[in-house]
Amino acid sequence: MTRFVYVTYIRATPDAVFDALTRPEFTTRYWAGTTQTSEWKAGAALGVHTPDGRLWDSGEVLEIDRPRKLVMRWLNEGFAEMKAEGPTVIAYELEAQGSVTKLTLTQTSAVENSKVIGAMSQGWPAVLAGLKSLLETGEPIAEFAKWPEGL
Amino acid sequence: MTAMASSAFVYVTYIRSNPETVWQALTTPEFQRRYWFGMHQECDFRKGSPWKLVFEDGRVADDGEVLESDPPKRLVLRWRNRMRPELTDEGDARCEMTLADEGGATKLTITHSIALEHSKLIEAVSGGWPKILSSLKSLIETGEPMDSIYSRAKA
Known about the structure:
The complex is a heterodimer of chains A (151) and B (155).
Chain A: E1 2-10, H1 14-22, H2 24-30, E2 35-38, E3 45-49, E4 55-65, E5 69-76, H3 80-85, E6 88-97, E7 100-109, H4 115-137
Antiparallel strand pairs in A: 1-7, 2-3, 3-4, 4-5, 5-6, 6-7
Helix pairs in contact in A: 1-2, 2-4
Chain B: E1 7-15, H1 19-27, H2 29-35, E2 40-42, E3 50-54, E4 60-70, E5 74-81, H3 85-88, E6 93-102, E7 105-114, H4 120-142, H5 147-154
Antiparallel strand pairs in B: 1-7, 2-3, 3-4, 4-5, 5-6, 6-7
Helix pairs in contact in B: 1-2
């Protein structure tokens, strides 16, 4: 098993953080221009799409308790090597602490020394730093808001 | 080195500012007091200089020495806890901070490590760094740190 855990604190309500993690009007602004589509209920399918409309990740909502918890099965579709490794589970836990929301991200793979976790653990700090900047200042980190050239 | 038992905590964040500003915020007491649980550091941040992390009432939380200093890119501290005997007994840890300019943001990486398996010190700092660095990011980007985290940590 391979696991990555990342904690950040955001000056916003859990509802606002939950929306920013899941709604396209937010994700397109800080998460490499991507859009997530789902009915956001347990058992619903999940798709992550590039700005030009390609399916980049697929999955399923495993557990949802808005705005406290969201657990998803997540399979990369963009790279054959990542897809071959099989799905990971991504969990967001949100906890209000006064005017701040504690966001805990946990991504787990059943595989030892998972390459997917290795790659995504490099990306999560940028994604969540952009999310925090967007919610606190109204502006994301511009560099992480664009889809990488050539991908 | 690969065979040595060790514990490490690594945390990365990106701050919408330049490395000089982030370095200032990491090394200047006036800044530190606003985001680091009210604590500040006593140090001139030159290689070989003593380093201390001090509570508002003057008690020393941690101390050590500057092992490397290359403003505004890299700072390495020898770090020993002075508040909890079970942590002091673990001996010296190493705290490395690196700053890199990444197109309009500063990538800040903290690596806190000790040559000991299942370290209680590393467990303790793993809870603290995300709070400190989230508050630092808010302070630099918005002018205000995160008050509620600060008051909870003090209580």
